[in-house]
Amino acid sequence: MDAGTYVLKIYRGTPGKQYWEQFEFKRNYSANVISALMEIQKRPVNRKGEITTPVAWEQGCLEEVCGSCSMLINGKPRQACTALIEEYIRDTGSNVIALAPFTKFPLIRDLCVNRDSMFQALVKIRGWISVDGTEDQGEFGQPISQEVQQAMYVLSTCMTCGCCSESCPQVNHRSEFMGPAAMSQIRYFNTNPTGKLEKSERLRVATGQEGIAGCGNAQNCVRVCPKGIPLTESLSLIGREATKQALKDLIGLPDA
Amino acid sequence: MNTRKTEVIVVGGGLAGLSCAMKLAEKGCHVKLVSVTKVRRSHSVCAQGGINIAINLKGEDDSPIIHAYDTIKGGDFLANQPSIVEMCMAGPAILRMMDRIGCPFNRTPEGHVDFRRFGGTLYHRTAFCGASTGQQLLYALDEQVRRYEAKGLVEKYEHHEFLRLVIDGEGIARGIVIHDLFNLELHVLRADAVVIATGGLGFIYKQSTNSTFCTGAANGRLYMQGMKYANGEFIQIHPTCIPGNDKMRLISESVRGEGGRIWVFGDSSKTIEFPDGSTRSCGKTGEPWYFLEEMYPAFGNLVPRDIASREVLRICEQGLGVDGKIQVFLDVTHLSSEVHTKLASVLEIYEKFTGDNPRKNPMKICPGVHYTMGGAWVDWPAIDDQDRWVRYRQMTNIPGCFNIGESDYLFHGANRLGANSLLSCIFSGLVAGQEVPRYIENLKGFSRDLPEEVFKAAQDLEEKRQKELLSKEGTENVHQLHDEMANYMVRFVSVKRDNPDLKRAIQKLKELRARYENIGMTDRGKELNQTYVFAHQFQAMLEIALVIAKGALLRNEFRGSHFKPEFPERDDQNWLKTTIATYDPSQDEPVITYEPIDMRHLDPIPRDYTTAKKGKPTLKNIRPLDSLE
Fold it and tell me: What is the pTM assigned to this prediction?
């Protein structure tokens, strides 16, 4: 292969009809995976010189804050927008980069999967603050210390991208585990002073089939999270709290 | 009133769409929320810096009136004033609401919401959540909407796109046609009112800070169906972006709010005209020249965005750009590690996309397309207008079709101040959440009672279009056409505008319109066919690009973001008026008319940022407002 070029090897197609297709590009200092995929749109010709269809993928902000462009790059789940081509060539010593769709979610086409289940999990864990209404009563919420705010902020940067679930051996078609992101969101809402009022209900979800029992402590999630969210810390914390909750429920003790 | 629930469609799930959907559901409406993506991924997540609320927690004697004054002046007097005054007045209540629903704002030691400084003001007025305030505000609203979704009051149509408004024989909006982005199936949704909240149009320029969702296609389609489009020529260029192959990435104004400084290496052999009219040397050769601080002593690095962008360009045209390019340094290396932590997510973006550490080396940044001040024309009866209660705020000229957030034109005039967009999006969303139920209450006849033909006719049109477009076999590639359009728009219709260039741009757009007829579809399937989806959008994008260019060509003055060196002064005599574009299929250019601006609160004054002192600005004709309504 010409040293002035690189190749994207893309696992594409629809369910049951997936195949690899390669595309070759001229090297360019500031290229990332997204800009390469955009090149294919303008000239959908594969490495063999055959005319093909443009590759489908999800994208949005391209600043790693919306969570759209998740995919497997050289087998690792991440956001494609921050995947710089030159960094890959430098780090792997290879001019070939492999792209594939996530495997833990239903495939739609090419690099796109359906991540609805992650959003359904946010409903199950009651991922909201139950305010009486949004009309102004002249009151703020309760004061929050700087330390707690900082902890909450980190948890709240979760963009539901799905990298954690993709990396988790316990998220699979035989298990009902909702995945690390939802567990971390339980911690987030249970930290908010008003959210605390529904703490028990969220913890009961965590004690259920889809909850914390599913975690096998492989710790893959925390390694792939693009936002550096302390997912394993959340998982063990929610695990302890859930156990306490189960005990309270057993003896019929309402939460203080 | 009828016992059956009223049906409302909200298109777009950013801050405006979500706050509107939340308010409507709270008022008992059934909401169909349509979005091209998961609403939680909407472009609002990109807003970094903060939200302006004049609540005066820093003892600076700040007030909503001063906030309104800054906003009117910052917009170079192009905006109608009553809506701005009410927005600023509503600010504190919006902040309290966002705090209550769990938005994790940064805190003071006592545990209250903290504030920072932003461009175009001298006050600490900006509440923030780290450096991803938009993301946090959006998530808090998304969570409330999810709560209503769980209760069955909100029904989401994510990964669906708005294609066409259904307008009945009396010209009233009665529903929409959408397609499913996964399989291109067409659906008709009925409703008693339609709210459009589809954001800005940066993708027309491609090299913009906007998300790729921000095509402007929804407004373009509505414009082609008769919706008036206002002040299209006003496009904000953000002074501090990282250039990239796929897009521009924003470096937030908060970096300067926290003490970041803009500079280039000086060259004492060169001179430049200062804003005060004097001609001075371009700093000292070989030493950092903090040109904004020298030119604008009062506001320094925090002058409004249009001014900063133009000065960066002017400096670079003198040959002082870093590496000889259109780029300058944005420097945070002198700031403490605490400040670096506060700005962490912004600095990380820079590091991720350039591989360079901004804590050690000054960042290299350039101006880029950032915000759409213009948008759908919407009505705004002021609180003390006689006909306040027979008109509807945020309603377009098509009855029953509302427009809110960045996709309307109301709040920012010729230039938006930093951290005002999040406020205007939430505010206009909440306003529509109150106006829509009132509109439906006064509406004769519900959408569900209309004959099927009305809806069938709209769907037929889209079916026909889909067939035609999918069978295109021409030689042009629509993405190539997009590149060509974007190049012309960036070169000729952004920071600096000249009439001969604008004429060339208009010619080019017409040429692209002709070539668009000859595109070939590189994908003909129905499964997640993104080529088709974009080709459908592109037609509407072209029409809006023409609106921008034509409005710019006609406006012979310099106002806010619209800078035309040939006409270097603001011309209130001739141009203190709103541009209105109307689509006429029988003509090859937009029909442009003008409308007077409501200036009941503040007479135009020069927009001076060189010497401004913290004064006590006042507005006239302010009626004491107890609450929003």
Answer: 0.95
